[in-house]
Amino acid sequence: MNAGRVNHLLRQPLLTAGFGLGVISALVAMFAPGGVIATGPGSGFATGDVSVDLPAGVVVVFIIAVVLLAVALSVPQLWAKIAGLGLLCVLATTEALMVIIARSSTDFEAEADLALGRAGAILAIAFGIAVVGLVLALVGSRGLATPPRVPLDEEGNALTGPQTSGHATAALVLGICAVLAIPAAALAVGFANLAMGQIGMSNGHRTGRGMAVAGLVLGIVWLSLWGLFMTIGIFVASPSPDG
Description:
Strand content: 5-15%
Mean pLDDT: 88
Radius of gyration: 22 Å
Low-confidence stretches: 3-8
Distance between the termini: 53 Å
Shape: elongated
Number of strands: 5
Structural class: mainly alpha
Order of helices and strands: HHEEHHEHEHHEH
Number of domains: 1
């Protein structure tokens, strides 16, 4: 790794740490495929405890996550960092859903008291690591903001009036859309941080702080609900009586 790339990583320590934890989360999750996610009393004519395994082929998903997060970590372009925020959220969601779906299997007795197997415990740990990484990366995304480019005349006066920050608009739209796709909530927080940073450095040439704050609040609310739901699901999900 050359000096320029090292300096790029050091200039954004929280973002670097967050993506780094995402890579670690995916690496940890790679030990889960082939193992038992959950065990418990079987349904129907099954006698004794049954188990649900995680297919070995799922390891490909985590290998791809490692590669993509490594790219987001090393590439300095803004698009890579924003994409990395969404990918971190997708990774954490995938890890949690694998456990929740397995625990909800109709192979188990309805509302049974299930125990996490080795693969389930590994995925739960990986999910926790990914969530911490996502929080760090979102906080660190404020450091991605740069002053807006404002056209000036020969005397240094702005040729255009104040304009609404595109990042602020994106933050609000994504915050609203997060009800349909939770990764949009992570992107909303990232764009909101970018917008507020850019507005603060614009010397009045960019507006839209209200939209940025609204997008930030929506993103945080949706992410908080998502984290709570996923955490509860990992440890208490079971087949419903109607299943």
